[in-house]
Amino acid sequence: MTDGDVPESHPRSESLAVRHRLEAGVERGITHTQGLLAHGRGEAFDYLLGERTIESAARAERSAAAHLLLADRPVLSVNGNVAALVPEGIVELAAATDAAIEVNLFNRTDERLAAIAEHLREHGAHEVLGLDADARLPGLDHERAKVDAAGIPAADVVLVPLEDGDRAEALAALGKVEIVVDLNPLSRSAQAADVPVVDDIVRAIPAVAEHARELAGAPNGELERIIAAFDRERALEAAERTIRTGDG
Ligand code: PTJ
């Protein structure tokens, strides 16, 4: 057995396998060491949520799929954690919704950008934006503001998993429809989102892709009904209640 092999009999084998994917991401220069700390925080919330997709998150995932399908220019933003944990899921979701993929990093270096773009291409991505950095998001300091003009600035709907609060707020201020995946319903990112998905990224991205494939031929009216039926405040409250009480 090598370092990363986890026996399936281990009661926490799934969680350990996910951790190992992040460790491998750090070794390949994809994930920042800060990403390990961020993941630990996420794990704690997931534990309290019962390590499952709660009902309100499932509704958010369907609403996210409907938004991405209705969008003119949807963009999926990818950081070092997302690239290590769900590269195939991101590529599948991009294909299902005709979305662009943009690497957008909090701890930005050219080396990490290149390693992540390469990793996504190895998993089937055709085009990866984020390397040109020929535009800036207003309201943020220099490094975190860097984006591709053809990506996030031109998007009408953006999916920003595990985003930092400042950037989530800056995107919301630009009037984008913002879909955030974050296990902490109290984080500024989740609070700023039009569609806060309080679920583990490892479950959330394949679930949104599955909804998108199922809804692919649906008339716009049906997609609009799904969007209108989703209540972000209630979803955030439901997640917080489950974390505090275990109910739901
Ligand atoms: O790759 P980079 O340089 O862009 O950096 C990425 C991280 C995640 C390190 C950076 O954005 C960061 O420091 O994020 P924060 O401010 O720690 O926020 C991360 C949020 O994601 C926290 O609210 C966590 O609860 C949440 N989170 C962590 N792991 C998961 C998660 N949410 C969903 N699924 C997870 N697996």
What does this molecule look like?
The protein is α/β, with parallel strands linked by helices. The chain has one domain: 3-Layer(aba) Sandwich (Rossmann fold). It is built from 12 helices and 8 strands. The chain has helices at residues 13-27, 33-49, 55-70, 80-85, 87-97, 110-122, 142-145, 165-173, 188-192, 201-215, 220-229, 232-245; strands at residues 74-78, 100-103, 128-129, 135-136, 146-147, 157-161, 177-181, 195-197. It has a 6-stranded parallel β-sheet, sandwiched between helices. The chain has a two-stranded antiparallel sheet with strand order 4-5. The longest helix has 17 residues, at 33-49. The mean pLDDT is 94. Bound molecules: ligand PTJ. Ligand PTJ binds at residues 32, 34-35, 38-39, 41-42, 45, 79-81, 105-107, 162, 164, 181-184, 187, 200-201.
List the helices and strands and how they pair.
Blueprint: H1 13-27, H2 33-49, H3 55-70, E1 74-78, H4 80-85, H5 87-97, E2 100-103, H6 110-122, E3 128-129, E4 135-136, H7 142-145, E5 146-147, E6 157-161, H8 165-173, E7 177-181, H9 188-192, E8 195-197, H10 201-215, H11 220-229, H12 232-245
Parallel strand pairs: 1-2, 1-6, 2-3, 6-7, 7-8
Antiparallel strand pairs: 4-5
The chain binds ligand PTJ.
